[in-house]
Design goal:
The chain is an all-alpha fold. The protein has a domain of about 210 residues. Helix content is about 85%, strand content about 0%. It is built from 21 helices and no strands. The longest helix has about 80 residues.
Length: about 525
């Protein structure tokens, strides 16, 4: 099997498991909405969870981005034994670092809550502090998970990381199905800690299989640890920009009516499904193309790869954004509206989802552009861009919150993402010269026209079709309208002669006929 076919197979597996885990994640969120609704407890829980997530995901992401290239260098110079020794050294040093953060965060929890939830007072403030302190050990578990994930992927083992979220979701779902809201959000935070341990445990058998054995190696002067420390800060900032924006949004939403934070949280979960599953899988495939093309003369091959990557992202993200806007009402009602999650909570979540969706194409393009800069070993550019995005988000939060309330916070997130993407593309052009972005502008126009046609079809079918009022009837209608819209989109972009769509459809056709394409 060729490398390209192996890569395609790996991506297909990653996409499949990613969508499955996202489905479980939605089921988990739906159960939280059913049992706790959108009010005092959930507002407090989501703020505390966001604060903890900011630390844990930030560290996990930075480790993932830096461990893999560093371990590859170690293996080339010192072999498998040296690689294993350095893995344990990195694990021990980073674990000690995590414990230090936990201790500091425990002491500073009241200050952190005052910053991230300025509207919390009295009992709600005390509960937020308690929940944050209970959840802090997840930072340590996140470090262990990040090192193990990087080690496995450096050994070309991707399956384990693709299923790591399964125990996380399954443990949550089991608890919510069995106990509901019987023990409140405090126990929900404890369950979150247990689920982190599940993420680690699912990877450990594979670690043992490839010869991993723990040892207490501890060398702060290790050149590879020093290299990771130098690479980490810019990656740390740029990779966690969405979490920082979420913290800012939740902090400002805490000054609004009860349920605003929860509405933003549920809408954000829905809007990032494709971003964190399908789009991330695409980036995984395209990123090696950038790395291989960086050293080409005049960046010729790199520029071709950039345009292909941007076009593919636009062709996927634009119709998803339009479809999400057109189907926002049934999506939210099917996903969340039951139990304590009433129509009022749905309406708040729907409007936030619409405004979050406007920024999806920009987010997709920025993901591609970030990885170009990573391939160019310019992590400072992405860091500076992340700072711009946060600044613009805060500015528009203050501008829009008075007139649009929580919907203004969602719109500000999209605006800041668009501004950040434009400035990053300008910076890229200055760095490597013109790279033919007009090709992507043309592709964007075609995708937008096809997506509008798709949206019209979805809107008309949504008004015409009535199957019943049950959840399954609503879900069936959603599948019919969404599937019909997708078919219209593919037909229109194919008719417009979009190269990437014609190639994919041709590849599928050859596969169905039992043939194999030898060129890309």
């Amino acid at each position: 099997m060729s490398k390209s076919k192996k890569a395609a197979k790996s991506v297909a597996i990653l996409i499949g498991f990613s969508f499955f885990t996202k489905f479980l994640g939605f089921f988990r969120e739906a159960l939280v909405a059913k049992n706790f609704g959108a009010g005092f407890d959930t507002d407090t829980y989501f703020v505390a969870a966001a604060a903890i997530s900011l630390f844990s995901l930030m560290i996990n992401s930075a480790l993932y981005q830096t461990v893999i290239p560093v371990l590859a260098e170690v293996e080339a110079k010192e072999g498998k034994a040296g690689k294993l020794r350095h893995v344990n050294n990195i694990l021990n040093i980073m674990s000690l670092f995590a414990i230090g953060i936990i201790i500091i965060a425990w002491i500073a929890a009241p200050i952190a809550v005052k910053i991230i939830a300025v509207g919390f007072k009295g009992e709600q403030f005390d509960l937020a502090v308690l929940l944050m302190r209970i959840g802090l050990p997840s930072i340590l578990f996140s470090v262990i998970n990040g090192v193990f994930r990087g080690y496995l992927q450096s050994e070309s083992m991707f399956f384990e990381s693709s299923i790591a979220d399964l125990p996380h979701n399954i443990i949550f779902i089991f608890f919510l199905l069995v106990f509901g809201n019987k023990y409140g959000v405090v126990i929900l935070t404890v369950v979150g800690l247990i689920s982190y341990i599940g993420r680690i445990s699912v990877q450990y058998p594979s670690l043992r299989k490839i010869g991993y054995r723990y040892s207490f190696d501890f060398n702060l002067k290790d050149e590879y640890v020093i290299k990771m420390i130098k690479l980490t800060p810019p990656v740390l900032i740029s990779s966690t920009i969405s979490d920082i924006n979420n913290i800012v949004d939740k902090s400002m939403a805490s000054t609004l009516v009860t349920g605003s934070i929860s509405a933003l949280n549920y809408a954000s979960k829905l809007s990032t499904v494709v971003q964190t599953s399908l789009l991330s899988s695409i980036t995984t495939v395209i990123y090696p193309m950038f790395s291989q093309a960086v050293h080409g003369k005049g960046y010729g091959e790199l520029k071709k790869a950039i345009i292909k990557g941007l076009n593919i992202m636009l062709l996927v993200s634009i119709p998803v954004a339009i479809a999400t806007i057109a189907l926002s009402n049934p999506m939210v009602r099917i996903a969340f509206e039951r139990g304590e999650f009433n129509p009022t909570a749905s309406s708040k979540t729907i409007i936030a989802l619409i405004f979050y969706s406007l920024g999806l194409p920009a987010t997709a393009m920025r993901s591609i552009t970030y990885h170009v800069f990573y391939a160019l070993q310019d992590t400072k550019a992405t860091m500076k861009n992340s700072i711009v995005i946060v600044a613009v988000n805060i500015l528009f939060n203050f501008i829009l919150i008075k007139s649009m309330k929580h919907a203004g916070l969602a719109l500000a997130t999209s605006i800041s993402g668009i501004v950040g993407t434009v400035t990053l593309l300008i910076r890229l052009r200055k760095k490597i010269g013109p790279f033919g972005f007009y090709h992507s502008v043309i592709c964007m126009g075609k995708a937008l026209l096809a997506a509008v046609a798709m949206g019209i079809v979805i809107f008309v079918l949504d008004k015409m079709i009535y199957l019943g009022d049950s959840l399954w009837h609503e879900l069936g209608k959603l599948v019919i309208t969404g599937g019909s819209g997708l078919l219209v989109y593919v037909v229109v972009v194919y008719a417009m002669g979009v190269e990437e769509v014609r190639w994919v459809l041709g590849l599928v056709g050859e596969k169905l006929r039992g043939k194999q394409r030898t060129t890309i």
